[in-house]
């Protein structure tokens, strides 16, 4: 909030993460680590409101660029008080020693249950995650690799069928044809807000493949419409599949 005001803006926070956790019966002292998606001020949260043993985990380059926080590092999105008496784990590129779906990945728990992925483009140290929900189903947390769900569909490999029934004569066939079997999935308006556009477009193509895979539920931080069907449905979380 303070950083936002210093930059000439303002933000309102109705609830902190730990408040939402408490509402759903999750105690703060059960959290071992907080994996921070990236370091933009609207995503950093308040680690200081968790027990001192809870460590923030940040992507490559974040700790070197912003630690120990403001005021020592003026550009840091977080005040130094957020890091007091706690260890900050800064991931390194060498830790991402495998590849999943075209992205560098880290088996965070060491047992194949939770992977941290390194999707370049949006921001320094930007992270995605892949959580195994059953033996062959997953939830893919896309972070800000995608700004709008509309850039995922309809594009290969989730193109519309060649035969699309439209119960109206007011829509010219050319309108649908333009969206079917497109030769490329890249469009000028599709790149998410980013630091490196070319890398962000490559990452977007990877996310499109995850979205098209029936074994994977794709999740984006601001898809509120999913909340009603997913966040309160243990069965849905266990299978990693969503039916609306």
Q: What does it look like?
A:
There is one protein chain. The strands form 2 sheets. Strands 4-5-6-7-8-9 form a 6-stranded mixed β-sheet. A 3-stranded parallel β-sheet has the order 1-2-3. Mean pLDDT is 76; it is low at 184-192 and 231-244. The protein has 2 domains: 1-91, no CATH class; 93-244, no CATH class. The chain contains 7 helices and 9 strands, in the order H-H-E-E-H-E-E-E-E-E-E-H-H-E-H-H. The longest helix is centred in the C-terminal third of the chain and has 16 residues, at 197-212. The chain has 244 residues and is of the alpha/beta class. It has helices at residues 2-6, 17-23, 62-66, 173-177, 197-212, 227-230, 234-239, and strands at residues 33-35, 55-58, 89-90, 98-100, 103-107, 114-118, 128-134, 137-141, 216-219. A hairpin with a 2-residue loop joins strand 7 (128-134) and strand 8 (137-141). InterPro entries: MBL_superfamily_lactonases (IPR051013), Metallo-B-lactamas (IPR001279), RibonucZ/Hydroxyglut_hydro (IPR036866). Belongs to the metallo-beta-lactamase superfamily. Residues 21-127 form the Metallo-beta-lactamase domain. Keywords: Hydrolase, Metal-binding, Zinc. This is Metallo-beta-lactamase domain-containing protein.
